[in-house]
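Customer escalation, tier 2.

The customer says the design service returned an amino acid string that "doesn't look like it belongs to this structure." They asked us to rerun it and document both sides in this ticket. The original structure tokens are below, unchanged.
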């Protein structure tokens, strides 16, 4: 029983933790990576059941230190994918979020980087727009009380602070960058458009994933994080 518990816990943990790095660095397909995640939940769940049974049936001979370690590994194997699935059920299955759904900022500088990406560079609109407006009503154009030059400088600093990779060749008064997610290394592109209005500045942001149908809410989070950082930079 101990050997089976140890094997199931470790294998389940590895099946859940490794798909991200293997997809990012070893060329494993996304389908294979997600299949590993799904079956890792089953293996981790089986390990947890075996641990509970072992505690109930063999309490006097339990080695609590190793049992705790195996339980943690099995919990990680179950909790990480379940958390992702839970998040997916609470957000719409879209991956292109913009503050301006009628005239979204256009990607220009990152266009060559997206060649061959499953998600096209164009804005689909229609049902995507409807789902965004229902799920993320706070994502809208921001009017800032600073002039364009000040906001542009702060936006450039915000991109650096957030760790995004800036792309060169964007349209005037526009910034483009790529954010790479930590676990799977997904590439999500961002375009920031600044429009002067009197002595103020309108700021529009669009964030779009290169792969995947659902972004698990990441693009909306990224836009909100940018505005938070932008205001922080402007207050310095």
């Amino acid at each position: 029983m101990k050997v089976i518990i140890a094997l199931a816990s470790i294998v389940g943990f590895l099946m859940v933790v490794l798909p991200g790095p293997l997809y990012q660095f070893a060329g494993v397909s996304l389908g294979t990576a997600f299949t590993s995640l799904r079956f890792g939940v089953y293996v981790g769940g089986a390990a947890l059941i075996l641990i509970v049974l072992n505690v109930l049936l063999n309490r006097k001979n339990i080695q609590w230190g190793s049992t705790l370690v195996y339980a943690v590994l099995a919990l990680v194997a179950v909790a990480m994918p379940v958390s992702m699935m839970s998040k997916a059920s609470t957000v719409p299955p879209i991956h292109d979020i913009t503050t301006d759904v009628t005239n979204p900022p256009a990607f220009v500088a990152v266009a060559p980087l997206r060649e061959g990406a499953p998600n096209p560079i164009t804005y689909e609109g229609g049902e995507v727009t409807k789902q965004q407006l229902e799920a993320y009503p706070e994502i809208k154009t921001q009017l800032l009380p600073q002039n364009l030059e000040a906001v542009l400088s702060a936006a450039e600093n915000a991109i650096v602070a957030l760790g995004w990779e800036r792309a060169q060749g964007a349209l005037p008064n526009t910034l483009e960058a790529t954010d790479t997610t930590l676990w799977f290394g997904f590439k999500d592109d961002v375009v920031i458009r600044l429009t002067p209005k009197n002595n103020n500045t309108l700021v529009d942001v669009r964030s779009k994933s290169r792969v995947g149908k659902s972004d698990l809410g990441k693009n909306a989070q990224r836009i909100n994080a940018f505005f938070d950082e932008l205001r922080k930079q402007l207050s310095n």
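Tier 2 assessment: The sequence is consistent with the input. The mean pLDDT is 96. The first strand starts at residue 96 and ends at 98. Sent an explanation to the customer and offered a walkthrough call.
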